[in-house]
């Protein structure tokens, strides 16, 4: 086969994949982004207003605009409510938006890189690796990198876990869904066992209890001083992934087609693995492991905007931000005054979705086999 014929076949494979995804028109994409942006504003307002102390939405906007220097309304709220909105709830809502968006785009990219619809940081053991790295820093008091030691250790753990799962699952140049998930579960189990051993053997009882609560995932305890790092990681991740959206689209047609179109698949995957591990590690260091956000949102978004990553990535980011803000609101009010870890609620939503996704893929494989 000549080079021109190979290029033609690769282009056809890419076009066929895009046709299978039934790309909606630009108007649908624009409307979807507009609706999600409006939902994000409504969700953030609800996150600032709802809690043990209810604050009317009008006062929420008054407090926020007053803090930003826009004195559009005469202050009619107490100093306590202003502190609750600005210093307690606002950092928490922003972290929820950042973490939800980050986990959604990481899941989207992983599903394209590994060409597996079940890929997700939590299921693949990446979150477990990041958690172990963070716990090592907390338990042993490692401060080699100053205030960023926790994030650096979480990044190293996430990258090591992802590479280990990928190497274990890849056999004969191919990765099946079953082998990938089994490898992820096995690696996650081993890393979690090591983490539990560290918690059981540490003589710092108070820290062990705090770490145990942190491993369930949550947005509490955040403040303005610690928000800059996950926010920067999100902007870096989305920026690079948007630039690389075309290459992610090429991978959907298969490694051979992507290579024929000029993509160095191995090098591209290696760079993306480092980037995704960095984003995941920083987010896990800030929130603890929160599962299934990166699994659900990409699939839901593709049903609306199609499979083109130039559309999927920004839409998934907005959807993930909205989803995690509401999950945190539910975590605060469902069992009030007790707060449920937000990771528990996302697992309750994501577990049934994961089972449905597996059954759907099994039916598709059976239909293809029969055809």
UniProtKB/TrEMBL annotation:
Residues 1-25 are annotated as: Disordered. The keyword Transmembrane helix applies. The keyword Nucleotidyltransferase does not apply. CDD domains: TM_ABC_iron-siderophores_like. It is found in: Cell membrane. It is a multi-pass membrane protein. The chain crosses the membrane at residues 25-50, 93-114, 121-144, 150-168, 180-202, 232-252, 272-300, 340-358. Residues 9-23 have a biased composition (Basic and acidic residues). Pfam families: FecCD. Keywords: Cell membrane, Membrane, Transmembrane, Transmembrane helix, Transport. Its main location: membrane. Belongs to the binding-protein-dependent transport system permease family. FecCD subfamily. This is Iron ABC transporter permease. The lineage of its organism: Bacteria, Bacillati, Actinomycetota, Actinomycetes, Kitasatosporales.
